[in-house]
Design brief:
mainly beta; Immunoglobulin-like; seven-stranded mixed sheet
Length: about 425
C-alpha cells in the first residue's frame, strides 16, 4: 500500500513537471545570441535652452538570420517621451516614434555576418534636476538604451564639456568632449551624470526630469517585439491554474497517506534568535560611489556592498540584550558595521506524543535567513528591445550627491 502511494505521488509530480516544461522547450535555441552591437556611439550637445541634441550611431552585427530572419528594423529606447526633431542620418529609411522609443527601419535587409551601420538624431528635453543634490547645481543623469540578450562590445558617450562643473564616472577629455567608454554584457547598464551651475543654461522648474519632479518612474514603459510577452503571461497563468493547485493536492495526499489524519501534533515550538554581523564597504569597490543606508548593493553599478558577513553568538556581543528583537542594528563605533537579528520558531518534539500506526517520527526546523571619484549616476533613460531580441528598462535608484568641490555622503545609524 505504501509503494502505491509513493508511485501515485511520483507520477503526479512528474506529470506536472512535464506539462510545465514542454511549452518552453522550443525556446532553447533562442538562448543563443542572434546579434551583437560592435559600436554604440552617442554624442550629446547641451543647447542654450538646456535641451540635449543627441546623435546615436550604432554598428549592429547579425549573427543568426534564421531564428528571427534578416535584420529589417530595430527598436531603440530613449530617455523619455519629451523629444522632438527625430531625424534619420545614415542607412535609415524611416522612423516611427513610439513615445519612449523609436522604431528604426533600415535601408535594406541585413543577413548573417553583415553589419548594419545606422545613425539618427533627436532633441531630448526633461533631462535635468535642479538643486537635487547640491544647492546651486543642476545635474543631467543619463543611461543609454541597453539590450537583453545582446552584447555591446563598445559603448562610447561623447558629452560636450562646455560649462560642465563636475561629472561621473571618470572619463577622458578629448577635443572639447567628455568621453565615457565601456563594454556591456547582455542586459548590463551604464550611467553617467554631468553637473552644471544653475546659471549655465536656461534651466526651468517645469522642464525637469520626471524623476526630479515626482520621484517616481516617469512615463517609462517596456515594449516587446517578439513572443516573450505571451510566454511570460502563459508562465504565470500556468502557475496559477496548475502548479499551485497541484502542490496543494500533493500536500493533501501526503497529509492523508502519512497517517496523520486529523490527529493532534506532538510538536511544539521555541524561539531561536539568529544574529548576523554584517560589515559594509564605505565606498563601492567597483565604482567608488558611497554606500546608501539600507542598501546591500551599489545602486549605480550593482556591486555588492557587503565586505563580510558572519553569524555570531550571543556571548560574542557587547550588550546582547540590545539585539534580541528582529531588525538590523548599528554595532560598535564603525558606522559600516551592523547586526541583523532574525527571530524564528523552530519545532521541538516532546517524548510521549501521539504516533500513528505505520507512521514514522518527524523532525523539522526552519532557518532564518565616495571615494571622491566622480561617480553618482542616476539613469534617466531606459532600454527597449530590438525587434530581434527583447530589451526593457527600469530606472535605477537615485544617485548620491554630486559636486566638483564637494561630495557628501550621509549615513544614518539605527539605534
Amino acid at each position: 500500500m505504501k509503494k502505491n502511494r509513493v508511485f501515485f505521488l511520483t507520477a503526479l509530480l512528474t506529470a506536472l513537471i512535464l506539462s510545465f516544461t514542454a511549452p518552453f522547450a522550443w525556446t532553447a535555441r533562442a538562448a543563443e545570441p542572434t546579434d551583437e552591437i560592435e559600436h554604440f556611439i552617442i554624442t550629446v550637445d547641451v543647447q542654450e535652452d538646456a535641451s540635449l541634441l543627441m546623435t546615436y550611431h550604432i554598428d549592429w552585427k547579425v549573427l543568426d538570420d534564421v531564428t528571427y530572419g534578416p535584420l529589417e528594423w530595430v527598436n531603440i529606447g530613449l530617455p523619455n517621451s519629451h523629444h522632438t526633431d527625430v531625424t534619420g542620418i545614415q542607412n535609415v529609411s524611416s522612423i516611427t516614434d513610439q513615445g519612449s522609443s523609436l522604431d528604426i527601419y533600415l535601408d535594406r535587409n541585413y543577413y548573417e555576418d553583415e553589419v548594419a551601420s545606422f545613425e539618427f538624431s533627436f532633441v531630448q528635453d526633461h533631462m535635468y534636476q535642479i538643486d537635487r543634490y547640491v544647492e546651486g547645481e543642476t545635474v543631467f543623469a543619463y543611461t543609454p538604451a541597453w539590450f537583453d540578450g545582446i552584447e555591446v562590445k563598445d559603448l562610447t558617450i561623447r558629452w560636450n564639456e562646455d560649462k560642465a562643473g563636475a561629472w561621473q564616472p571618470d572619463c577622458v577629455q578629448d577635443n572639447g568632449y567628455l568621453v565615457f567608454t565601456s563594454s556591456l554584457d547582455p542586459g548590463e547598464r551604464y550611467s553617467i551624470t554631468v553637473a552644471y551651475p544653475n546659471d549655465a543654461f536656461s534651466f526651468s522648474d517645469d522642464r525637469q526630469s520626471d524623476d526630479a519632479a515626482g520621484g517616481g518612474r516617469g512615463d517609462y514603459y517596456a515594449e516587446s517585439t517578439d513572443d516573450w510577452p505571451m510566454i511570460i503571461i502563459g508562465f504565470f497563468a500556468f502557475i496559477i491554474m496548475f502548479v499551485i493547485p497541484g502542490i496543494g493536492l500533493i500536500k493533501f495526499f501526503q497529509w492523508i497517506f502519512s497517517g496523520e489524519g486529523f490527529g493532534t501534533s506532538s510538536e511544539d515550538t521555541e524561539k531561536k534568535i539568529i544574529r548576523t554581523k554584517i560589515e559594509y564597504y564605505e565606498f563601492c569597490p567597483s565604482c567608488g560611489a558611497g554606500r546608501i543606508e539600507g542598501k546591500d548593493e551599489c545602486p549605480y553599478c550593482g556591486r555588492s556592498m557587503i565586505k563580510s558577513k558572519e553569524i555570531v553568538e550571543e556571548k560574542d556581543l557587547d550588550k546582547p540584550k540590545n539585539y534580541s528583537k528582529a531588525g538590523t542594528y548599528h554595532y560598535g563605533s564603525d558606522p559600516n558595521t551592523y547586526i541583523h537579528v532574525n527571530v524564528v520558531n523552530v519545532p521541538v518534539s516532546h517524548p510521549g506524543g501521539s504516533r500513528r500506526s505505520g507512521g514514522s517520527g518527524r523532525s523539522g526546523g526552519s532557518s532564518g535567513p565616495v571615494l571622491p571619484v566622480r561617480r553618482p549616476v542616476h539613469p534617466a533613460a531606459r532600454a527597449l528591445p530590438a525587434v530581434r531580441v527583447p530589451a526593457h528598462a527600469l530606472p535605477p535608484a537615485a544617485p548620491a550627491a554630486l559636486s566638483k568641490s564637494s561630495l557628501k555622503t550621509a549615513f544614518t545609524a539605527a539605534e
